[in-house]
Amino acid sequence: MKETARRAAIVTGAGGGLGAAFATGLARAGLSVLVNNRHRGDGAPSADALANRLTAEGLSAAPDRHAVDAPGAAQAIVEAALEAFGRLDVLVLNAGINGAAGKIGAAPPEDLAEVMAINFFANAALVSAALPHIQASPAGRILFVSSTAGLHGLRGRAAYAASKGALNAYAVSLADEQRRAGVGVNVLMPYAETKMTGGAAGDALIAFPPERVAPAVEWLTSADCTDTGQLWVAGGGRYRRAFMVETPGAGDVTGNAAWIADRRDAIADRSEARIFRGGEAAFADMLGDVQAMAKG
Fold it and tell me: Which GO-annotated molecular functions does the record name (predicted)?
Protein backbone atom coordinates (compact mmCIF):
# COMPACT_ATOMS: atom_id res chain seq x y z
CA MET A 1 0.00 0.00 0.00
CA LYS A 2 1.38 3.38 -1.03
CA GLU A 3 1.41 6.37 1.30
CA THR A 4 0.73 9.76 -0.22
CA ALA A 5 -0.10 13.30 0.88
CA ARG A 6 -2.21 13.79 -2.25
CA ARG A 7 -5.99 13.48 -1.76
CA ALA A 8 -7.39 10.39 -3.43
CA ALA A 9 -10.72 9.85 -5.18
CA ILE A 10 -12.80 7.06 -6.66
CA VAL A 11 -14.93 7.95 -9.68
CA THR A 12 -17.28 5.18 -10.79
CA GLY A 13 -18.54 4.83 -14.34
CA ALA A 14 -15.55 6.85 -15.54
CA GLY A 15 -14.78 5.11 -18.81
CA GLY A 16 -16.37 7.90 -20.86
CA GLY A 17 -18.87 10.73 -20.83
CA LEU A 18 -19.50 12.48 -17.54
CA GLY A 19 -17.43 10.08 -15.46
CA ALA A 20 -14.36 10.54 -17.63
CA ALA A 21 -14.76 14.32 -17.47
CA PHE A 22 -15.09 14.15 -13.68
CA ALA A 23 -12.04 11.91 -13.26
CA THR A 24 -9.98 14.09 -15.59
CA GLY A 25 -10.99 17.27 -13.78
CA LEU A 26 -10.13 15.86 -10.38
CA ALA A 27 -6.78 14.52 -11.56
CA ARG A 28 -5.89 17.89 -13.08
CA ALA A 29 -6.92 19.52 -9.80
CA GLY A 30 -4.20 17.50 -8.08
CA LEU A 31 -6.02 14.42 -6.79
CA SER A 32 -5.07 10.81 -7.31
CA VAL A 33 -7.99 9.17 -9.10
CA LEU A 34 -9.14 5.57 -9.31
CA VAL A 35 -10.86 5.39 -12.70
CA ASN A 36 -13.59 2.78 -12.39
CA ASN A 37 -15.54 1.35 -15.30
CA ARG A 38 -16.80 -2.16 -15.95
CA HIS A 39 -14.98 -4.15 -18.61
CA ARG A 40 -17.20 -6.52 -20.57
CA GLY A 41 -14.27 -8.38 -22.10
CA ASP A 42 -14.42 -6.92 -25.61
CA GLY A 43 -11.82 -4.38 -26.70
CA ALA A 44 -9.42 -2.39 -24.56
CA PRO A 45 -10.67 -1.58 -21.05
CA SER A 46 -11.93 2.01 -21.01
CA ALA A 47 -10.80 2.53 -17.41
CA ASP A 48 -7.24 1.59 -18.37
CA ALA A 49 -7.30 3.88 -21.41
CA LEU A 50 -8.27 6.94 -19.37
CA ALA A 51 -5.91 6.13 -16.51
CA ASN A 52 -3.08 5.77 -19.03
CA ARG A 53 -3.91 9.12 -20.64
CA LEU A 54 -3.89 10.83 -17.26
CA THR A 55 -0.60 9.31 -16.17
CA ALA A 56 0.88 10.30 -19.55
CA GLU A 57 0.03 13.89 -18.56
CA GLY A 58 2.05 13.42 -15.39
CA LEU A 59 -1.08 13.02 -13.27
CA SER A 60 -1.88 10.36 -10.67
CA ALA A 61 -4.41 7.73 -11.74
CA ALA A 62 -5.06 4.00 -11.66
CA PRO A 63 -7.71 1.84 -13.37
CA ASP A 64 -10.38 -0.41 -11.91
CA ARG A 65 -12.53 -2.72 -14.05
CA HIS A 66 -15.19 -3.87 -11.59
CA ALA A 67 -18.88 -3.64 -12.39
CA VAL A 68 -20.27 -1.69 -9.44
CA ASP A 69 -23.17 -4.12 -8.96
CA ALA A 70 -21.07 -7.29 -9.01
CA PRO A 71 -20.93 -9.30 -5.77
CA GLY A 72 -18.10 -7.99 -3.60
CA ALA A 73 -17.38 -5.13 -6.00
CA ALA A 74 -17.85 -2.32 -3.48
CA GLN A 75 -15.16 -3.61 -1.14
CA ALA A 76 -12.87 -4.51 -4.05
CA ILE A 77 -13.11 -1.02 -5.56
CA VAL A 78 -12.30 0.63 -2.24
CA GLU A 79 -9.41 -1.74 -1.66
CA ALA A 80 -8.05 -0.95 -5.13
CA ALA A 81 -7.96 2.76 -4.26
CA LEU A 82 -6.24 2.10 -0.95
CA GLU A 83 -3.70 -0.17 -2.62
CA ALA A 84 -2.94 2.39 -5.32
CA PHE A 85 -2.92 5.55 -3.21
CA GLY A 86 -2.83 4.60 0.46
CA ARG A 87 -5.87 6.68 1.34
CA LEU A 88 -9.39 7.61 0.25
CA ASP A 89 -10.84 11.10 0.58
CA VAL A 90 -13.44 11.44 -2.16
CA LEU A 91 -16.13 9.14 -3.55
CA VAL A 92 -17.92 10.21 -6.73
CA LEU A 93 -20.82 7.85 -7.41
CA ASN A 94 -21.41 8.32 -11.12
CA ALA A 95 -22.08 4.82 -12.49
CA GLY A 96 -25.67 4.25 -13.56
CA ILE A 97 -28.01 3.08 -16.31
CA ASN A 98 -31.18 4.40 -17.92
CA GLY A 99 -32.87 1.03 -18.07
CA ALA A 100 -35.47 0.09 -20.64
CA ALA A 101 -38.09 2.65 -21.61
CA GLY A 102 -41.64 1.71 -20.74
CA LYS A 103 -44.75 3.07 -19.09
CA ILE A 104 -45.81 1.98 -15.63
CA GLY A 105 -47.94 -1.14 -15.92
CA ALA A 106 -46.35 -2.17 -19.20
CA ALA A 107 -42.75 -2.57 -18.06
CA PRO A 108 -41.90 -5.87 -16.33
CA PRO A 109 -40.87 -5.74 -12.65
CA GLU A 110 -37.43 -7.03 -13.61
CA ASP A 111 -36.68 -3.71 -15.31
CA LEU A 112 -37.20 -1.79 -12.07
CA ALA A 113 -35.10 -4.29 -10.13
CA GLU A 114 -32.20 -3.99 -12.60
CA VAL A 115 -32.17 -0.18 -12.50
CA MET A 116 -32.40 -0.06 -8.72
CA ALA A 117 -29.60 -2.62 -8.38
CA ILE A 118 -27.13 -0.42 -10.23
CA ASN A 119 -28.40 3.11 -9.61
CA PHE A 120 -29.23 2.72 -5.93
CA PHE A 121 -28.11 -0.46 -4.18
CA ALA A 122 -24.62 -0.53 -5.74
CA ASN A 123 -24.09 3.06 -4.63
CA ALA A 124 -25.28 2.27 -1.11
CA ALA A 125 -22.83 -0.64 -0.94
CA LEU A 126 -19.97 1.59 -2.06
CA VAL A 127 -20.82 4.15 0.60
CA SER A 128 -20.77 1.46 3.29
CA ALA A 129 -17.40 0.16 2.09
CA ALA A 130 -15.81 3.59 1.72
CA LEU A 131 -17.28 5.43 4.68
CA PRO A 132 -14.72 4.44 7.36
CA HIS A 133 -11.92 5.71 5.12
CA ILE A 134 -13.80 8.86 4.11
CA GLN A 135 -14.41 9.58 7.80
CA ALA A 136 -10.68 9.22 8.49
CA SER A 137 -9.88 11.88 5.89
CA PRO A 138 -9.39 15.47 7.07
CA ALA A 139 -11.76 16.51 4.26
CA GLY A 140 -13.88 13.52 3.31
CA ARG A 141 -16.41 14.12 0.54
CA ILE A 142 -19.10 11.99 -1.09
CA LEU A 143 -20.85 13.15 -4.24
CA PHE A 144 -23.90 11.34 -5.63
CA VAL A 145 -24.47 11.89 -9.35
CA SER A 146 -28.23 11.85 -9.70
CA SER A 147 -30.80 13.36 -12.06
CA THR A 148 -33.57 15.93 -12.00
CA ALA A 149 -35.78 12.99 -12.95
CA GLY A 150 -35.52 12.11 -9.28
CA LEU A 151 -37.15 15.45 -8.46
CA HIS A 152 -39.67 15.85 -11.25
CA GLY A 153 -40.27 12.33 -12.56
CA LEU A 154 -39.71 11.25 -16.16
CA ARG A 155 -42.45 9.95 -18.42
CA GLY A 156 -41.59 6.53 -19.78
CA ARG A 157 -38.64 6.19 -17.40
CA ALA A 158 -40.32 5.72 -14.04
CA ALA A 159 -37.75 3.13 -12.90
CA TYR A 160 -34.88 5.52 -13.62
CA ALA A 161 -36.68 8.41 -11.91
CA ALA A 162 -37.46 6.27 -8.87
CA SER A 163 -33.84 5.15 -8.55
CA LYS A 164 -32.64 8.74 -8.61
CA GLY A 165 -35.33 9.89 -6.18
CA ALA A 166 -34.21 7.17 -3.78
CA LEU A 167 -30.61 8.24 -4.27
CA ASN A 168 -31.46 11.87 -3.45
CA ALA A 169 -33.22 10.91 -0.21
CA TYR A 170 -30.40 8.55 0.75
CA ALA A 171 -27.80 11.25 0.13
CA VAL A 172 -29.44 13.98 2.19
CA SER A 173 -30.03 11.47 5.02
CA LEU A 174 -26.35 10.50 4.90
CA ALA A 175 -25.37 14.19 4.92
CA ASP A 176 -27.38 14.74 8.09
CA GLU A 177 -25.81 11.71 9.76
CA GLN A 178 -22.26 12.72 8.82
CA ARG A 179 -22.53 16.45 9.53
CA ARG A 180 -20.77 16.25 12.89
CA ALA A 181 -18.07 14.00 11.46
CA GLY A 182 -17.19 16.70 8.94
CA VAL A 183 -17.93 14.54 5.89
CA GLY A 184 -19.46 16.60 3.09
CA VAL A 185 -22.23 14.80 1.19
CA ASN A 186 -23.94 16.42 -1.78
CA VAL A 187 -25.93 15.57 -4.89
CA LEU A 188 -25.18 16.68 -8.45
CA MET A 189 -27.85 16.41 -11.15
CA PRO A 190 -26.15 17.01 -14.52
CA TYR A 191 -27.38 17.74 -18.02
CA ALA A 192 -24.89 16.60 -20.65
CA GLU A 193 -24.55 15.00 -24.05
CA THR A 194 -23.45 11.41 -23.42
CA LYS A 195 -24.16 7.89 -24.66
CA MET A 196 -26.87 7.63 -22.02
CA THR A 197 -28.78 10.64 -23.33
CA GLY A 198 -28.65 9.07 -26.78
CA GLY A 199 -29.49 12.25 -28.69
CA ALA A 200 -32.83 12.52 -26.91
CA ALA A 201 -32.82 16.33 -27.17
CA GLY A 202 -31.40 16.51 -30.68
CA ASP A 203 -28.85 19.21 -31.41
CA ALA A 204 -29.72 21.10 -28.22
CA LEU A 205 -27.28 19.02 -26.18
CA ILE A 206 -24.31 20.15 -28.28
CA ALA A 207 -24.07 23.05 -25.82
CA PHE A 208 -23.91 20.54 -22.94
CA PRO A 209 -20.56 18.73 -23.13
CA PRO A 210 -19.62 16.76 -19.99
CA GLU A 211 -16.63 19.03 -19.40
CA ARG A 212 -19.00 21.89 -18.53
CA VAL A 213 -20.28 19.93 -15.54
CA ALA A 214 -16.85 18.91 -14.20
CA PRO A 215 -16.15 22.19 -12.32
CA ALA A 216 -19.11 21.45 -10.04
CA VAL A 217 -17.55 18.09 -9.14
CA GLU A 218 -14.21 19.74 -8.43
CA TRP A 219 -15.86 22.29 -6.13
CA LEU A 220 -18.24 19.98 -4.28
CA THR A 221 -15.47 17.46 -3.51
CA SER A 222 -12.84 20.03 -2.57
CA ALA A 223 -11.53 20.56 0.94
CA ASP A 224 -12.66 24.19 0.67
CA CYS A 225 -16.31 23.22 0.15
CA THR A 226 -17.97 22.81 3.54
CA ASP A 227 -21.51 22.71 2.13
CA THR A 228 -23.38 19.47 2.77
CA GLY A 229 -26.82 18.03 2.13
CA GLN A 230 -27.29 20.15 -0.97
CA LEU A 231 -28.83 19.37 -4.36
CA TRP A 232 -27.05 20.96 -7.33
CA VAL A 233 -28.02 21.05 -11.01
CA ALA A 234 -25.39 21.71 -13.68
CA GLY A 235 -25.21 21.78 -17.45
CA GLY A 236 -23.70 23.82 -20.26
CA GLY A 237 -21.66 25.88 -17.80
CA ARG A 238 -24.76 26.96 -15.84
CA TYR A 239 -25.37 25.96 -12.22
CA ARG A 240 -28.52 25.83 -10.10
CA ARG A 241 -29.58 24.76 -6.63
CA ALA A 242 -32.62 22.57 -6.08
CA PHE A 243 -34.66 22.48 -2.88
CA MET A 244 -37.38 20.35 -1.35
CA VAL A 245 -39.87 22.70 0.30
CA GLU A 246 -43.20 22.72 2.10
CA THR A 247 -45.70 25.55 2.09
CA PRO A 248 -47.02 26.91 5.41
CA GLY A 249 -50.43 25.76 4.25
CA ALA A 250 -53.64 26.34 6.17
CA GLY A 251 -55.59 24.45 8.78
CA ASP A 252 -58.82 24.01 10.69
CA VAL A 253 -59.48 21.13 13.06
CA THR A 254 -63.08 21.04 11.79
CA GLY A 255 -62.10 21.32 8.12
CA ASN A 256 -63.62 18.84 5.71
CA ALA A 257 -63.00 18.01 2.06
CA ALA A 258 -65.00 21.03 0.90
CA TRP A 259 -62.97 23.27 3.21
CA ILE A 260 -59.75 21.96 1.62
CA ALA A 261 -61.11 22.47 -1.90
CA ASP A 262 -62.01 26.08 -1.13
CA ARG A 263 -58.50 26.81 0.19
CA ARG A 264 -56.32 24.77 -2.16
CA ASP A 265 -54.71 27.91 -3.64
CA ALA A 266 -53.82 29.23 -0.19
CA ILE A 267 -52.45 25.84 0.81
CA ALA A 268 -50.29 25.81 -2.34
CA ASP A 269 -48.94 29.36 -1.85
CA ARG A 270 -45.14 29.09 -2.02
CA SER A 271 -44.34 32.69 -1.14
CA GLU A 272 -43.23 31.64 2.35
CA ALA A 273 -42.12 28.08 1.55
CA ARG A 274 -40.05 26.35 4.21
CA ILE A 275 -36.89 24.28 3.85
CA PHE A 276 -35.99 21.68 6.47
CA ARG A 277 -32.89 19.78 7.47
CA GLY A 278 -34.38 16.31 7.58
CA GLY A 279 -37.77 14.75 8.14
CA GLU A 280 -37.61 15.26 11.91
CA ALA A 281 -37.34 19.02 11.48
CA ALA A 282 -40.23 18.99 9.00
CA PHE A 283 -42.45 17.13 11.45
CA ALA A 284 -41.46 19.44 14.31
CA ASP A 285 -42.54 22.41 12.20
CA MET A 286 -45.89 20.80 11.39
CA LEU A 287 -46.35 19.95 15.06
CA GLY A 288 -45.77 23.58 16.00
CA ASP A 289 -48.37 24.76 13.50
CA VAL A 290 -50.93 22.22 14.72
CA GLN A 291 -50.33 23.13 18.35
CA ALA A 292 -50.67 26.83 17.57
CA MET A 293 -53.87 26.14 15.63
CA ALA A 294 -55.30 24.18 18.55
CA LYS A 295 -54.71 27.14 20.87
CA GLY A 296 -56.79 29.30 18.57
Answer: oxidoreductase activity
CA–CA distance, 69 with 121 (Å, rounded to integer): 8
**H-helix or E-strand containing 32?**
strand 32-36
Give the domain ranges of the chain.
8-242, 245-294
Of the candidates 88, 75, 91, the one whose C-alpha atom is nearest the C-alpha of residue 6 is 88
| Known catalytic membership, residue 160 | yes
Q: Which residues lie across from 63 on neighbouring strands?
A: 35
Residues 223/139, Cβ–Cβ less than 8 Å: yes
Burial class (CB in 10 A: 0-12, 13-18, 19+), 55: middle
Q: Note the pLDDT tens digit of each residue in 128-184.
A: 999 999 999 999 999 999 999 999 999 999 999 999 999 999 999 999 999 999 999
The mean pLDDT value for 47-76 works out to 97
pLDDT score recorded for residue 296: 74
Q: State whether the Cα torsion 195-201-207-211 is positive or negative.
A: negative
First-to-final CA distance of the chain: 67
Asked whether residue 198 carries a pLDDT value surpassing 70, the answer given is no
CB 176 within 8 A of CB 191: no
Q: Which of 160, 170, 191, 239 is catalytic?
A: 160
Fold for the domain defined by 8-242: Rossmann fold (3.40.50)
Asked whether residue 200 carries a pLDDT value surpassing 60, the answer given is: no
What's residue 41's pLDDT? 78
- Alpha-carbon distance of 138 to 110, in angstroms, equals 41
CA dist., res. 222 & res. 33, Å (int): 14
